[in-house]
Fold:
Amino acid sequence: MRTKAIRVIGAAAAVLLAATACGGRGDGAGAVAQGDCKGQQTVGITDSSIKLGGVYPLSGPASAYGEIPKGARAYFDYLNAEKGGISGRTVEYNVRDDGYQPPKTVEEVRRLVEQDQVFAIFQTLGTPTSSAVWDYLNQRKVPQVFVAGGATKWGSDSEHPWTIGWQPSYRAEGRAFADYVKKEKPNGTVAVLFQNDDFGKDLKDSFVAAIAGSGVKVVAEQSYEVTDPTVDPQLRNLANSKADVLLDISTPKFASQALAGDARNPDWNPLHIVSMVANSLSVLKPVGFENVQGVVSTAFTKDPADPRWADDAAIKSYREKLAKYAPGADPTNTYTLTGWAAADSFAKTFEAAKCATREGLRDATRSLSGIAIDTLLPGITLKTGPGDAFPMEGVQIQRFEGNHWSAVGPIVDTSK
Structure:
């Protein structure tokens, strides 16, 4: 989505702007690259290896996302064993657990950068956690590549050039949901459950802006904190509104609770919309598939549980390689597939870099020329350029039917 840059004011602003100049060394630079790449950072990379770091909530309230690094590591292990790594470099992927706690994210990222000397941070998960470290990483001129989260600022902020997102933004998703509701319930009322942080507010505000001037109205809002044990009180309050639609902007633990609470209430049967960050089968199974029929969400990857992809070459390869390099991982879990697709995206982005340096990776992420990732939905590719730092801008509305998600309509292009 092309938006005007959001200006971030801070003491490091001048440093961050200066970081856009090719050739900056930064702290702890390694061997000097040659040719046009001379003087650029080669920390964590040699002619035969590349060291990456990732930080995820392997424990805590968002631990369902711990499946993502399983998929990423499996892809890197597959490349190392069968393809000689990335551009002839084997990948060492160091994963840390932050428990979805920003102070812990800071601690683990500093360890990866200062002790492990990683070349880049490939994925930090979450808006508050990733936000806690982007100033530090940009000051150190360390790439923070393909953040696992859809905060709009990952693509709209011009003063953190070393940070970039990957998946479609929450603003894009909010617009897609709004268009769907305006079509399905043109005079509908909406109750919103949202996580009280930049993730929840970003998507909610986008939805509200996109329904402005239509017959759709938000009639109730309830927020929750990540530290809350349950969202049952919020669900009871929202049910009192008798809204036609429940817009559920929550992470897996709370989305599962909200879906269960909705199913238990015989007096309220809204159209339940769930954000893409919480639509995995691992969220829906505990509720019972019979209780989540007709739930709506969005997608940008193929659903490995959907029969329509059973004979798809990319999904068949993913299943085969996952079984080999991550035995025990659930191939139908979309978080696992997301990690696989993100790692594939990193590999292809690095291969396109003009310099095998941190600066080269930074520049490559911002000049993606329609790179195809086979596990993404047809029609969605990675594309960035001047003034556009959103790698993906298409989403697919989907509805849960039987035991899998089914596509509804064409890909929604949110770049316009």
Q: What stands out?
A: Confidence is low (pLDDT under 50) at residues 1-32. Residues 306 and 404 are 5 Å apart (CA to CA).
